[in-house]
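User: For my dataset I need records formatted as: sequence, then structure tokens, nothing else. Please produce one.
Assistant:
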Amino acid sequence: MTTAQLDKMRLELRRGVLVLAVLSSLKTPHYGYSLRKQLQDAGIDIDEGTLYPLVRRLADQGLLDSEWRQGEGRERRYYQLSEVGADLLTQLTQEWQQLNSALGPLLEH
């Protein structure tokens, strides 16, 4: 397998996980940079070109609420889970846990 093929497979694996990570992180309000920093501190490296479009898409889908707030001398758009987003996060978390439980034994063999 080439490096390019491996990179493509990694990207596919990460895509859905990033949605779950962002939704989970936005249980508390964050603006873009603080969200990216929290994810990086948790070991999830995500570049701005991936994060910002993802957050905007989730907001457009009604999964996030946003508001402008003054902070550190400038206005920033803060995002937080909407009620619909919180419900989806619960469902996705359950799905993730079920998949993880099923996948664990398969990976051990």
